[in-house]
Structures are given as C-alpha cells and as structure tokens.
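Researcher: We're teaching a course module on how sequence relates to structure. For the next exercise, students receive a sequence and then see the predicted structure as tokens, so they can try to spot secondary structure elements on their own. Here is the exercise chain.
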Amino acid sequence: MALIIKRSLAGLILLLVLVALFLAFWEPWFAQPIAGAEPEKRDYQVEIYRDEFGVPHIFGKTDADVSYGIAWAHSEDDFSTLQDVAAMTRGRLGAMTGAEGAQVDYVAHLLKVRKTVADKYDELPVDVKALLDGYAAGINRYAETHADEVVLTGLFPINGRDVAAGFALRSPFFYGLNRTLEPLVAGTELRADGGPALNIPKAPSEETEAAETNDKLAQAKPGSTPRMMTPLGQYPELNGSNAFAITPERSSDNVTRLVSNTHQPWEGPVAWYELVVHSEEGWDFAGATFPGSPFPFLGHNKNLGWTNTVNRPDLIDVYELAVNDSGTQYKLDGEWRDLESKTIWLPVKYGPFTIPYPQTTYRSAHGPVIKNDKGYFAVRYASIDDLSMLTQYYRLQKAQNFDDWQAAMAIQGVPSTNFIYADKEGNIGMFYNARFPDRKAGVNWRSIVPGDRSDLIWQQPVNWNQVPRLVNPASGYVMNANNTPYTIAGPGDELQREDFSPLLGIEENWTNRGARAIALFEAEGKIGRAELERIKYDTGYEQDKYPKLWMDALLAVDVGDDVDLQTAQALLAGWDWNLDGKGSGDALALMLMNTGLFNAPLGRSLIDTLDAKEELQKTVDHLNTYFGSIDPPMSDVLRLRHGDVDLPYIGGSDALRAATRWRVEDDGRLAIVHGDSFLMFVEWDAQGNVSSQSIRPFGAATTRPASPHYNDQAPLFVQRKLKPVLFTRTALEAAGFKSYRPQ
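Model: And here is the predicted structure for the students to work with:
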C-alpha cells in the first residue's frame, strides 16, 4: 500500500513538474510569426551622428539604408519599447506584460491584423516594402548583437510584414475604436458618435425596432464601462495636440511659421522619438516618430512641413446581426451565412508562468463581431483591412512642394488625423483628413444599423475633394487643438457646416485650447516669434462650456459649516482662470480642472455624472494631507519626474501648455505622464531658408538611465526653452560631432 501511495505521489509530482514546465515554456513554441521571409542581410550604407542632446541624424545611400539606421538608433535608445511593439504586432504582448497586454493581443486577433497583412502587403509599392524590410533588418541586427536585452524568446527576427501589422493595429485607435469596443464587450451603453444627428424619418415599425435595439445596450452610464488596454495605452482619447501655421503676411518679420505641439504619453508605444534623416534618394526630413515606424510622422524638409492633431469624426459603424439559435449563422439579404468563429489562445504572463487563456473571435461580412448578453454586433471602421497609410506617409516624406504634398494626401490611406501645413512659399492650410466612409443616405448612421442588408456595408471612402480643408485664409493663420474644423481660423474665414454632408460625421467638439487659441490670435496684431510663443505657452481658461459648467457645479455645492470646503470655494470663486502658478487657488483649480477634462473629453460633457461635493472634498483632503494647505504653490504640486530629475512644471489639463494626465506619487506630488510632448517651431525666412527648434520632456534615451541623454532636455522643457535642430551634415561637423556606423 505504501509503495502504491509513493508511486502515485511521484506520478503526481511528475505531472505537476510537467505542467509547470509547459506553462513556463509553451508560448514560444506555439507562437506563429507573420508569414514572410526574414529581410535580406546585407551591408546597409548608413552613418549616424548624435548631436549635443543625443538626437540621431541618419545618413544613408538609399531610403532603405536610412530606415535601417532609424531602427538601429531607436534600438540604442529604447529597445524595450520596440520589443513591446514587436510583441504587440504578433499577438504576444500578454507573454511580456500579463493581462493588460493580453487585452491588446485579443484586439489584434479580433481585427484580423495578420490576415490584413497577408491579403494586402504584396500590393504595397516595391519601395515601401524595401523601407519596411530595412527597418526590420535594423531591429533584427540590434537584437542579434544585444541578445542580453531580448526578453521574449522567438520574437526576432521580424520582417516588413510585422512592421506593417503595427500600423494596421494602432491606426483605428487614434480616432476612438476603443470607445466602441469597450461598451460592446461589456454589454453597456454605446457612447455617442461624433458628428451631427441624422434625423431620418422612420415608419412606426422601424421606430419600435430601433428603440428595442438601442434599449439592449442602454441601462448603464458610459462611465461604468470597464476600460480596456489598447495599442495606444489605456486612455487614448486624451491624446491630442495643438498646431499653428502663420503666413508671412500675418507675421511681423515676413516669416512663415509652423508650430507642432503634440500631446502624447511621455513613455510607451506612442511616445515621440526625435530624429533627422537624409538619403541620396532625396529623403531629407527632421521630425519625430513612434516606436515601430520606419519614418517620421511629422516635421519638415527644406521646402515644406506639417504637423498633426488628433481628430475623431464618426468613422465607426455598429451593425446588429440577426443570428440563428445556434449562433453559427447570420442573415444577410434574406439568406443565412456562416458566422466565422475562431478559438484563440492568449498568452498571459503570471509570475514565472505563461497561462494560455482561450477566447473566441467572430467575424461577418461587415467586420469583427462582438458577442455579448444583448446579441451579436458587427463593427466596421475606417481603414478596415487596409495598409495604404504606409504608402501615404512615405510619399509625404518625399514631397517637395504643395502639389506633391496634396497628391500624397489624396491617397487617403491615413484613416484620421488633421494635417496642418506650411511651406517656404508662404502657403498654409488645415486639412481635416479622414477616410470618411461612403455611406448610403437615408440611414441613421449615428445609431446601431441593421446588419441584414449588404447595401449598408460601405466599401470605399468618399472622394478626396469632399474632405474639409482651409488653405491660405485671409486671417493669416490656421490652428487646431482637437476642436471642430468649423473654428480653425479667424472669424469670416471659417468652414461652413452646410457645405459638408452630415453623413461624414464631422465632429463639433469644443476644447478650451481651441477657443483660447482663437481668442489670443484675434487679440494680436502682427504675430512674430515672441507672440507665437506667448500663445503656445498660455495657461489660461475661457469661462465657457465645460470649464464654466464644472466650476459652477463646484461653487454650487452646499458645504454647510465645513471650514475647509468654504475656504476652497472662496479660492475657486476668486481664481483668475489661469494656471500660471502665480495666483491663489492654482493648485486646487489644477486638480479639479483635470477632473472636469477627464470627464468631458474633448468637450463631450459627462460632468453631470460627477459628484461635485465628493470631488471637492477629495481634492481638499489630498492637498491638506500632503501639503498642509489647501493653497500650496502649484509648482510644489505639479512635477516633471523621471529618474533622479524632479522639476516644477507649469501647465494644465486642456490648457495650451498642457499637463493632461499624471500619476500620484507617494509624497502626494503629481508627476506628469501625458501632456506637451514633442514641440517643434519651424520657420522659413523671406528668402525661403528653413530653420527649426525642438524639445522633448525627458531626452532621446528615455528608457536608458545610464545614458547622458536620459533626462538632459528636461531642464529646458520646464523652462519653456527649445534647442536648435541641426539639419545638415555640414552643421553637425562644424559643431564637432562625429559619425559612426551600426555594428
């Protein structure tokens, strides 16, 4: 008997050991790379200079050589984030980061990113594929020569298809795909779409059916919907930017100016990385990119430049499917079709183990399908199953004049994002770029759409000439701060709502930054460099829309005989509506205005879901607990912290000098993680000569604490100063910088 027990125990132990070994090592064995050969290993002709701040200046014989150098330089500075992006594109982020990464992996499977690449990659132009392969080769070479930094077995080598997959995965989240997926997955109320209401008359039976459909996803406040981790982080709706362009006629010194002022996370997969590139094939560009990209997304060459701000028109449609009792078929045009389903295994890192977690994804002719307790809902979104954004971005890089640039824009590959343009000829423009679906009239696209009609499954974007734009307005400036395109220049120069179909779903958002910029531009006469900097770094609030609504709610709170709350209300009542760190109540207003912004993203008011007294009490308690005062200096509260650097910061949520989101530290300080990120001022003088200056919050090597460029830009950044961009080899060598070649 004892022998049997011992054998059973030994067998159990062996089984547990085998299970442990399986959980520790199964994931790399089962992971499937995107199909395609490893990029050719060849001698890439590339040199890299590092300037005073470690910014890479990359020179190559061909564009593909340059993209190899981009990957190598970026790997030197931030290989950890590049690995995250590579794992994300292969559906393996959960194996690196756990449950949150697995959410991103689920989305990659749901959107069928691999299939998009398999179907569309070979259609890309030869030079685009060469660029992608060159970039992949640079990362592979770095991984090969720095094997001790690789954290996930079998992740490398990657190829151009992997790079393309990153674009297919991330692009739709810039215009808010998560805002649709989150409530659908949770079975809660869908958030309102952008764009004007579509008042489509319905027959009584249709009204009843539509009401029943919408009731299925009601009964819950939007704020109760669980947040998902996305390829852009957990709060992509807070990503935004300011952008300004000024004609020489409006300037005080006959200079054309372009200001790029992006608001992105300061670390992670969509944190900016500055670079300057030159090839003998005519690619000369200074700007910034995201991890995983073989080219800059914004910046300038000698002749022209552009920057971007996030826009969020209605580019997503939800269809309710009629599904049979077994959940295997859906009805389309009176016929039953098979509902595609696939079981996937998400790798979820848990301690030393990687747990395989099963999920099922569904797909119909419309696109990905979400099954919840209310039914089956298909989602169709701009750029679905498309890779043409890669071609457009690359063609923009090589444009040498306004006509070239507009021809690249007409490709309509980039699914969303405003483009603010300027050039040496004095042209400026704001393009409300979006891949607007060519929707059928007579349907309420702002609501859930019937899924049983194939004529409602749109295929193409509208023609490029229908996309809103404003070029060379009489006011002499264009600007955007994630606000509606109907207020992007001076009064009298505005785009008119009636000129654009409501089917486009053009947003009508108000932001404090947009309203503030217009007010400041209109208050100025001629706008030179000093005036433009004053506008860009403004920290004021307009007493309008959600800031006033939220302030009124705070001042209306019945605080009884609570002395602290009475003091707080008195401070708010006397606040000067400016977070410049000079007035009373700035720290209190800073924290409360952030609450207002976070619950009224881009002007969509959800403030009525807040308990004003609770938020006031919470803020007062925090300031008293950590600072011993309701009115401490704002500079003591709001900080730029990274490694050993700890500096005061002046700015605010939805202010032109942005501090959008922060983490609360153990000492109660607020360490910014999202706000003003990459800044660039570009100027063309009267002779057409270009110059530029730039800055980032930390440094070029954001994740390398041992690097001298880990934090070296931070002191300039908090002082609202910029550094020069050296745009030529001659300038670099005159300053004494030497080049090197990747290993």
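Model: If you want an answer key for the exercise: The chain has 20 helices and 27 strands. The chain has a mean pLDDT of 91.
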